[in-house]
Design goal:
The chain has one domain: Beta Polymerase, domain 2, CATH 3.30.460. Helices cover about 35% and strands about 25% of the residues. A 5-stranded mixed beta sheet has the order 1-2-5-4-3. It is globular, with a radius of gyration of 13 Å.
Length: about 120
């Protein structure tokens, strides 16, 4: 499966559970670590856990591997590593603090499903 298709699966899994401000950034020309970074905001710790679980479930349903899940205990920022796609699920204050879009999007082509909403 191509990394773009895997990113689309992750975005759909997040959108299914009403993830907010979903961004999908192609970082393949910036790093060899991954091809896409998907960033989403969750409303609560419980919402973040549910979205992470849904991403893992949907990726595995497509017979793709989940390398790891980090941060699930605190659930302020959960990272789901699917190899070619890394999903960052964060509470709004954490997302604003780390501003990953600014870090990775300075020169990367952006393939957004939904434009980030400015508050």
């Amino acid at each position: 499966m191509k990394s773009k298709q895997l990113a689309e699966i992750a975005v759909e899994a997040l959108d299914d559970l009403k993830g907010q401000s979903i961004s999908c950034i192609n970082v393949s020309k910036l790093t060899s670590i991954t091809d896409y970074m998907v960033i989403v905001t969750g409303r609560s710790n419980t919402h973040i856990k549910a979205m992470a679980d849904n991403v893992v479930k949907k990726v595995k349903e497509e017979n793709q591997q989940v390398v790891g899940v980090e941060g699930r205990m605190q659930s302020e920022w959960v990272l789901v590593d699917c190899g070619d796609v890394v999903v960052h699920i964060m509470l709004a204050p954490v997302r604003a603090l780390y501003n990953l879009e600014e870090l990775w999007n300075f020169d990367a082509p952006k393939e957004n499903r939904k434009e980030p909403q400015l508050s």
